[in-house]
Amino acid sequence: MRFLKNKIIFLLTLVLLSFITCKQNNENNTRKITSVLKDKTNSSKNVVIKGFADDAKAFDYMNFINYSYFRGANHDNLFKEKINDTTIFTLESINQAQIIEVFSFGDSTNYSTRIFASPGDSIAMLIDKRGIGFNGRNASQYNFFAELDSTNTEWAKNKYKGDIKDYKKRCLSIYKRRHQFFEDYIVKNQVSNDFKRIVGAELKFEYLYNLVAPRSVTTEFGFNVNSQEGFFQTIAKDYDVERDGFFDVGDYMDHITINDFKRPELLNEDYFKRSLVAFIRSYYVNYGRLNYSTVNFKTEKEYIQNHLNGSLENYAITSLIHDYYEKGFGQGKIDREEIKNLIHEYKDKGLNPSYREALDRIDEKLDAFGLKFPEKVMAERLIGLSGDTVTLDNVLKKAKNKIKVLDLWASWCSPCISEITKTKTFRKHLANNENIEWVFISVDSHQEKWLNKSKELREFLKNEYQYRLLNTDKSSIISFLTDNRPGTFMIPRYIIIGYNDKIETISAPRPSDSLIFTNLITKIKIDNP
Predict the structure, then answer these.
(1) Cys-Cys link to 416, which of 102, 146, 463, 492 (CB 3.0-4.6 A)?
(2) What's the domain range around 434?
């Protein structure tokens, strides 16, 4: 049972990651940890995990997701060494107790769970056919989530089906069962006060996030994931006041106020951070369409500044800038100034380093506006379907009097392929009505894989505008887009080039956000009459 539950959780984690991005040259959507043979001592800020596995490959791609980073990422200061049959992972600089997500690809299956870890912990991890289990002095704190998820109360099974009141009842039922399991667990097992405080709060905010972002989207794997279009926008198409009566949104949201979020000690936790942003954006600020406009940007900014301070304010503002930029805000002359001013106001405020890094990257992308690709990038050679090679400059000249969208994708990138297949009609509309040419550039390392996938997708792609980077590992395009940090390159990636080959944006929103994408094209045309 534990094995089956862990597999479900892992697949759901993978699905959620796939909605975001794929990393270049990483068909398993994870990175291999570099083995570093060092004499490690378990300092007061280290977490040491000694692993034993029946599945030898399980430790080759082991990930420890740290949510103290801006949006959660594999722990940076992670070291691995192997001594006989034991693999030792050292997570350095764990500054306070927190929930860490653990997942890995094995030889024939995958493994996933969450653990509650504290600075100085020494943990024994066992991977076998049942899944991941833990031993050690605080084993009850490490095994809690695996045991909780065996109770058949997974959120991923709870789909919003158009009746918001029924959805709330089911959410409340799931939360009550999970919370009761937690209450019973802390009575039967010896756990720390930090565990009680942090895990109890995270279960509550997990419930609240499922309220404010109903699970209205079903993935190809059959999991139900949270809507990102805003609460009122999600339910508007289904709710009829005359039929359903008055909807008391305050009662639905359990009368949660912004004061309930004034808990900066929880900024290491995934669902607290998700809930904070979602409640501000979808409940406290916006009651209409979540359109990522200048008005909404200013309104949300003012709300955050008036109601939060310190690290909570810094996180909320960083999320505001990041999320609006991802939806195309800041890619017109007026809103570009608005977002850059806010970046410069905050990035020197002693931010969490990962917040600062997120703002720096956006700032760099905004600075590319109106520039042209360097000569080295324009001279990069691409290979076409027929095997002929051309430069990027040649490709852009073919569509000289059009706006060009460079679509960077790969045969192994599920989100890329999903965008290609579901936006065919929208791309045709842009070509016919907005004078836009779509150029597909694959970052596949292998020619055959690219050609096979291109053939499979031929009804969605235009042959005359399909290319592959001739040398992915030494690509000037990728170096330019990542400021010579190729390991940070993510796809799908959409670059919009204007009429005079000037860069309009090097990180456009996904075309599946058709309204957002259309608004961006409109801004570009207004800026370039």
Answers:
(1) 492
(2) 375-527
